[in-house]
Amino acid sequence: MTHRFIAACRREPVDRIPVWMMRQAGRYQPSYRAVRANVSFLELCRSPELIAQVTLAPIDEFGFDAAILFSDILVHLPAMGLDLSFEKGEKGKGDGGPKIANPVRTRADVDALKIPDPQKDLPYVLDGVRAIRKGLAGRVPLIGFVGGPFTVASYVVEGGSQGFTRLKTMLWADPKAAHALFEKLTQAAIVQIQAQIAAGAEAAQIFESWLGELAREDLEEFAFPHLARIAEAVKKTGVPSIFFSTGTTSHLERIAKLGYDVISVDWRIPIEDARARVPGVAIQGNYDSTLLLGPKDNAVARAQAMLRAAGPRPGYIFNLGHGIQVGTPTETVKAVVDAVHAFTWK
Ligand SMILES: Cc1c2[nH]c(c1CCC(=O)O)Cc1[nH]c(c(CCC(=O)O)c1C)Cc1[nH]c(c(CCC(=O)O)c1C)Cc1[nH]c(c(C)c1CCC(=O)O)C2
Question: What is the pLDDT of residues 305-338, one digit of tens each?
Fold first, then answer.
């Protein structure tokens, strides 16, 4: 029988509303922090056994309807020739953000980038996918993922989480270099997502988190053509595709034409508006993750209100508008997941 998460991606009727949460494996969980006490973030991403362990933990703990591969949108950068590390954050707060010691600034830097070979360069990701599928034993589907070209480029050009000014300046000052960079990052995304699917991923999410930084004409020139190619590549494999971004709901109708089965929206749009504006795709979202930091009863009530607003029409997946935050109480996550599963319109 088709699982309710896959059914919702395809806009088919479901027995209960499927729910998962972006970053559902992470530092808000004591079990994750225990694993990270002994290994760095990149060591964790490179161990198939640990990948499987941390991916499965939130499924067992909260009963989510989908698992998401534990990895990162930047894991392939060393294979492209970039010196990636995750900085140590403040003591007791885990690692800080990503750092790239040799960021891409010129056309020559772009030309030097290699396209990764997932079998050779990222075997631990694919072994991780296989280990997760084994551990899941068919309980819920596994989502594979890659970063979108604009979002990955922002780290590659800025050298870390330092905004978008350098990358956007490159668009105007050297558009040929920018196009060449997006082209390489698109190819890298396609080979990775295809390899994850071949290894057993049953859906694919594209994290284009920072797309809302671009104006419409720049989206048309530098982003949408690449994102449509990634959608096309996933479509050929037969698994459902999910497109995630933030700050982009003013372009929702256009994004719905990129070829993805599901569009993940943030909390800046009422969920009923998102569903009404693009009835030809499934919608995922759009709960404000900060609500999970507040009182549990309010978090549950707001989840129920969102479901009422989303309405009974097939093609809806409960998720957050962006990732779950450090400090989120696990009891609140459990209460919200249970409330989604208990919800009916009758
Ligand atoms: C922008 C981005 C990155 N990585 C990712 C994105 C896009 C999604 C988004 O917008 O939130 C994607 C990502 N990163 C991670 C996942 C795992 C799957 C999941 O549970 O959703 C996914 C899907 C684990 C992670 N990726 C990272 C962590 C924290 C690392 C730790 O354990 O200390 C996790 C669990 C580190 C990371 N990785 C990245 C940054 C900026 C940081 C530092 C910020 C932070 O610490 O939260 C790059």
Answer: 999 999 999 999 999 999 999 999 999 999 999 9
Taking the domains of the chain in order of start, what are their residue ranges? 4-342
Are β-strands 316-320 and 282-287 bridged in parallel, bridged antiparallel, or unpaired? parallel
Write out residues in the chain with pLDDT < 70, as ranges.
Answer: 89-95
Active-site annotation holds for 260 = no
Bridge partners (DSSP) listed for residue 283: 263, 316
Phi then psi for residue 86, to 5 deg, are -115, 120
Maximum CA extent, the chain: 61
Q: For the complex shown, is ipTM > 0.95?
A: no
Ligand 1, residues at Cβ distance < 6 Å: 22-27, 36, 41, 68, 70, 72-74, 94-95, 97-98, 145, 151, 161, 207, 209, 322-323
For 162, the 3-state DSSP assignment is coil
Reduced to 3 states (helix: H, G, I; strand: E, B; else coil), residue 127 is: helix
Q: Enter the pTM of the model.
A: 0.96
> How far apart, in whole angstroms, are the C-alpha atoms of residue 201 and residue 238?
11
Question: Under CATH, what is the fold of the domain 4-342?
Answer: TIM Barrel (3.20.20)
